[in-house]
Amino acid sequence: MTDGNGMAVVATIESPHSVATMLQLAIEKGASVEALEKLVALHERIEARQAAKDYAGALARFQAECPPVEKTETARIVSQRAGTSYTYSYAPLDQIARTIGPLLHREGFSYGWDSKIAAGVLECTCTLRHANGHAERATFSVPTENPSAMSDQ
Fold first, then answer.
1. In terms of pTM, does the model score above 0.90?
2. In three state form, how does the secondary structure of the chain look?
3. pLDDT in the model for residue 17
């Protein structure tokens, strides 16, 4: 490939732009559908790898700057079978969101929650998304119908 002045231009395959350029050249040269599909797949893999790198860098910066979240609430758990109880401290979700939200947004992150209940189990999934398109999910489950596991007292 040459630039407008007749100079040879070498594109590295690691750049999504170079793959897009190769794709455009392949179309202009009448490449087969199979060849175009392979170039599109290569382009998508390179973009996904770059998005994962960007995500990891932004997450590292966020973690380096994020202050501890203060535990301001206390829960008391009473065992209905044994009659014993215990307490623990925690940070409410709205307080966590207020503490970390500005830092998350500065690094290009957003998050959302999904939940479902099946067979007496509440399953919650948090999805952390980055502005470049990469996302990661974390899921936790808690029983909802086991009287010894949860109490309204």
1. no
2. CECCCCCECCCCCCCHHHHHHHHHHHHHCCCCHHHHHHHHHHHHHHHHHHHHHHHHHHHHHHHHHCCCCCCCEEEEEECCCCCCEEEEEECCHHHHHHHHHHHHHHCCEEEEEEEEEECCEEEEEEEEEECCCCEEEEEEEEECCCCCCCCCC
3. 64
